[in-house]
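Example 3.2
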Amino acid sequence: MRMRVAGIVLAAGEGRRMGKLKQSLPVRGKSMLEMVVDTALASSLHRVVVVLGYHADRLAPLLSNRPVAVVINRDHRDGQASSLKAGLRELAPESDAALFLLGDQPLVSSKILDSIVAAYQRTTAPIIAPIYGGKRGNPVLFGRELFPLIENLKGDTGARGILAGHPDMLFSLPVADPEILFDVDTEEDYRRLLEMEQDEDR
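Structure, written as tokens:
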């Protein structure tokens, strides 16, 4: 039986280091959030959940014509763990695993997502994480058997503690895409993103 993987896009944060609503910043003719969500929708994920929080009123309309479930995390100031849990609570039992995508990683392709899903189908490992050049990146997949551990998380550490505490459950997937290591946290990161976009257009 084919295992089904849902995508959960984490886009609830305030982006304090950026100092502005980075999810709405333009990238290749659309907002960063739209780009991440469209990549998820173009992949083999069987459904997509988007977790919003900070300025959800400004971001939710961007997704109104897309087949996604939007969840508003009222506790987003408590840290990323609250968004992980908010996304999981939207999933029905039909989802065997969740792939957590970061809303500030617009360069991660649907090809990368598909390779992670395929690795889960092949190995059924409870955790699948992509690596490039020996460094672990995002997005990371967690099987349903680990959802209770995510429900116990607190603060802004995300799921790093689960990864560190269960190395025996982790399958590291080598990929040829450095984009898994790149997210937009600062103005400098955003400038780099725009420069990469210009280089591709030349």
